[in-house]
Amino acid sequence: MLSRLLGPEYRRKRLAAKAPSGPLRAYLSHVLADRGSDYRQVEYLALDLETTGLQPGKDHILSVGAVLVRGTRIDLSTARHVLVRTKRSIPEASAVIHQITDDRAAQGRPIEEVMPWLLEQLAGRVMIAHHAKVEIGFLTAACRSLYGSEVLFTAVDTQAVALRAFRRRNQEVAARELRLHALRQRYGLPRYPAHDALSDALAAAELFLAQAAHRDSGKGMALKEFLL
Question: Of 20, 98, 171, 210, which sits 20 to 30 A from 145 (CA to CA)?
Fold first, then answer.
């Protein structure tokens, strides 16, 4: 409770001190993005995970899509899609949704290799994700499993940003209106194929920039206005 009252930087330092040496401690050694910074001066990692279900610890990650956002520009040269090898059979329902079969998953990289890369990409940056609770939950579960320690993320959830915007206008909103493609449509953004990790990461990055530009009067805004 005390660590939460003292803020995220205090919690980061405490977690870094407890983390085993390796990828997690290296990640936690980076100072978190300043919440008071102009959001246009911050680096982000737009991220999407495709998983076998929605229960971290029970379900597992099938693929990762990620791309860097530098201020208000998406750096497409950094876009990556990584298949994650799983030791379990992929449920039929999941394979239908994600188009990732057991054969495809067998060609992927083990999570033990993917997590160090992903933590390195996230270090010192802000995560962008749509319904970020999923990404945060699965990455936290992976860190507990691989490193036996907790982790801390700074994140923008484009779904939460949208929900706050509806509430500021005292508008009621249906769950379907908060879906990624529905929100993108509001900003005139094109529809991308769903349930592909890289497409969804790019879609979330574009949506965040559209949301931020819509609120920004041209003078900039503090990063904290968009954070979870």
Answer: 98
